[in-house]
Amino acid sequence: MRKIAIVLLLGTVFLMPIEEVVSIGGAVSIVRLVGVLAILAALVSTRMRLPNPPGIVLVCLPFVLWAGASMAWSWNLVDTAVLTGTYVALIAWVWLLVGFFPSEREWDLVQTTYLLGCYVGLVVMLITFGIRSQLDEEVASRVSAAGMNENELALALGLGVVVAYHIMAISPGIGPFRRALAGIYLLTAPIGILLTASRTLAVGLVLAVPAMIFASRGANARARTALIALILVSILVAPFVVPDDLIQRSLGQNLETKRDTSIENRQNMWEIGLRNWAEVPAYGIGSSAYKTMTKSLVAHNSYISVLVELGIVGAVLFVVIFYALVRLILATRPPHRATSIACLLFLMLSMLTLTIEATKRTWMVFAIVAAMARIAPVERRSPEEAPALEAQNA
User: Between 250 and which of 47, 60, 160, 202 could a Cys-Cys bridge form, CB atoms 3.0 to 4.6 Å apart?
Assistant: First the structure.
């Protein structure tokens, strides 16, 4: 039964980058179904004696409990109850993912599985783009995989870039086939992200990749050089593949000549949300009630979404989660620390324009940071050892 639980957990990781593509009728998420089965299989296989929860799970628990408590005052009780169930499933999923894959070799399997899922999303996206081009359709419009939001796909692909770099340059036990797989992905993924024309995620990747390279002291030097070369080649090839309008939109260069109504709409949604939050600043309007307030529109900003829905209390608990993640990063030794830094930076920038606090991709970052801290903890030395070590280094 434990093997079944492991396979199901890996199944959720594989399907995560293409979650919307494999939903049934656009409503029933296969990833959620597989995740629930994985949790049940894990409970059965361990006879309810699960591994000790990682620290990040304990830190996230008060936030989840507060989201559940908001059912008492929510503007939409049903949606709040559903989202509370989602949070409970996510926190259990992170617990099991980190607990069932404790070693670096096992976690490499998790990351390789996620990369394969990203490949599926990328391939479906490129096929869609190719069909559009052959049919002479308007190829300047944003491209995505079937059924997926462009920004959501860009987020999944961007996290895949960080994972691919880890596989290629940091993981010690990875064979040549998986390194080649990661290298090909690093060459093609930036083109895919440009095709989504997601401005914030493109900028986030531009900031996250140099941070990752700079922070990865001790990584494979040849792999780091290869990463830089692959990304440069991808940038040089992009103008010949990606329509100019999509490149300009990704870089924000068309905002002066073309009115961007998406930005105006988001600003209006933020203003509406903050006005309503001012009436109940301490506890908010209830988890997942933002859509009720704006008549089916989300915040398009995770920080504003949490503040409006869960008030100052929820926002503080949300900030505490990120404080804990930073502490975990500081407790991780290089070069593994670079993976955590890049993931968290990319996620935090993505949250500026996406409402993703309750998605598996966000909680996958929580799991990655926790796993890196467990796999590669900073070595603690006694005060007596420190002078000798300094003398040796000198």
Answer: 202
